[in-house]
């Protein structure tokens, strides 16, 4: 009997994991990742066949753009039938945005797409890259009854696999750089790989993968702070072509009760701009109407972001606007969980 190895496609987009330090300037720069992989003999011990692909010009994730998300989604589409799973190596800075965006772009995903990266380059003596890379590949190859164990976009970092669109980067220097405060992690790596099946995206009737390719960037995020001037809100809402705004509010979705402030929001909604109420707290949910400071927002039909992250909210907006969801349905669709991004 011949053992069929699972096939994994490793896509390197850039980020610290594949960077090397420039001796003269001391600055971290992207390097030839395929070359770097040759120095990780551990990869050859894995029971899967790994092919690699890299972006022509690997980038620091601060340079990620929606067109890059579409590029990653298109690579996955092109190779979907030839591989059992995909591991996307990505800078950690905007990894949660990419993970969220991919979850929306890849409709009916039935295979694992695992994003990972590292805080230290793979060549560094104390690197966290090897564990992140090796375990991500193992998770992408996991099969139960010869079917993929994970069938969603996940983010693996420092011993935990999270649902990608639930994550936020919370630390710029700890190896534990990500958190998913409103949803439990899906897999934990210790001596064994513990899979928490009850939290995984459930197996549904297999439908054909649909890869969306339009993201509309006419969106903005505004974080409230005590003393925010009307001029700030007004200027944002007057941006030419603006279609939607993620308003990061306080606590459970609260905002100033100042009439002029509320009138500006109301006028924008009347003019067809979608306003999403997302809490600036890292965990917990928006509950409009719980306090007096959110009842006016509820009344004027501000969209309830519930417990969505800002990263998932902004990418969901780009995706929904790109998919031309009608103005009539927009609120209902946004308030519905499409890929497990909200409760
Ligand atoms: N600046 C890097 C990036 O996001 C940081 C990292 O890779 O962790 O590309």
Name given to the CATH architecture of the largest domain: 3-Layer(aba) Sandwich
Q: Which cofactors or ions or other ligands sit in this model?
A: aspartic acid
> What is the total tally of β strands?
20
Shape: globular
- Percent range for β-strand residues: 15-25%
* H/I helix tally: 9
How many angstroms separate the termini?
Answer: 45 Å
Which sequence of strands runs across the widest sheet?
4-1-5-7-10-11-14-15
Name of the level-1 CATH class of the largest domain? Alpha Beta
State the major sheet. Answer: 8 strands, mixed
Which ranges are low-confidence, i.e. pLDDT below 50, for 5 or more consecutive residues? none
Q: Name the CATH superfamily classification of the largest domain.
A: L-asparaginase, N-terminal domain
One letter per element, helices H and strands E, the order comes to EEEHEHEHEEHEEEEEEEEEEHEHEHEHH
Note down, in words, how this protein is organized:
The chain has 343 residues and is an alpha/beta fold. The protein has two domains: 6-211, Rossmann fold (3-Layer(aba) Sandwich); 219-334, Rossmann fold (3-Layer(aba) Sandwich). Helix content is 27%, strand content 22%. The chain has helices at residues 33-37, 66-79, 95-105, 129-141, 230-237, 259-270, 292-299, 310-322, 327-334; strands at 6-12, 19-21, 28-30, 48-54, 85-89, 106-107, 113-116, 143-144, 147-148, 153-157, 160-163, 168-169, 178-179, 187-189, 193-195, 210-211, 219-223, 244-249, 274-279, 303-304. The strands form six sheets. An eight-stranded mixed β-sheet has the order 4-1-5-7-10-11-14-15, with helices on both faces. α5 (230-237) links the parallel β17 (219-223) and β18. α5 packs parallel to α6 (259-270). It is globular, with a radius of gyration of 21 Å. The model has no long low-confidence stretch (mean pLDDT 95). Aspartic acid is lined by residues 14-16, 60-62, 91-93, 117, 119.
């Amino acid at each position: 009997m011949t053992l069929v190895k699972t096939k994994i496609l490793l896509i390197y987009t850039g980020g610290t994991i594949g960077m090397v330090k420039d001796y003269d300037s001391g600055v971290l720069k992207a390097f030839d990742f395929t070359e770097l992989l040759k120095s990780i003999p551990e990869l050859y011990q894995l029971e899967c066949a790994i092919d690699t692909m890299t972006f022509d010009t690997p980038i620091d994730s601060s340079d990620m753009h929606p067109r890059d998300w579409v590029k990653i989604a298109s690579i996955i589409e092109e190779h979907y039938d030839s591989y059992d799973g995909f591991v996307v190596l990505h800078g950690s800075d905007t990894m949660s945005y990419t993970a969220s965006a991919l979850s929306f772009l890849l409709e009916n995903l039935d295979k694992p797409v695992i994003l990972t990266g590292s805080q230290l380059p793979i060549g560094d003596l104390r690197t966290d890259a090897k564990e992140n890379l090796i375990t991500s590949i193992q998770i992408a190859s996991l099969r139960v009854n010869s079917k993929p164990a994970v069938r969603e976009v996940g983010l693996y970092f420092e011993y935990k696999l999270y649902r990608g669109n639930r994550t936020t980067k919370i630390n710029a220097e700890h190896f534990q750089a990500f958190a998913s405060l409103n949803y439990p992690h899906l897999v934990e790596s210790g001596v064994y790989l513990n899979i928490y099946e009850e939290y995984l995206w459930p197996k549904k009737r297999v439908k054909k993968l649909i890869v969306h390719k339009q993201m509309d960037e006419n969106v903005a995020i505004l974080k409230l702070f005590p003393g925010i001037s009307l001029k700030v809100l007004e200027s944002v809402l007057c941006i030419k072509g603006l279609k939607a705004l993620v308003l990061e509010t306080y606590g459970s979705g609260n905002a100033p009760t100042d009439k002029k402030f509320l009138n500006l929001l109301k006028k924008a909604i009347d003019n067809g701009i979608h306003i999403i109420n997302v809490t600036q707290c890292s965990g917990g949910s928006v509950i409009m109407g719980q306090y007096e400071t959110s009842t006016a927002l509820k009344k004027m039909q501000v969209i309830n972001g519930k417990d969505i992250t800002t990263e998932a909210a902004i990418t969901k907006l780009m995706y929904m606007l790109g998919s031309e969801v009608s103005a009539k349905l927009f609120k209902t669709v946004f308030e519905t969980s499409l890929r497990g991004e909200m409760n």
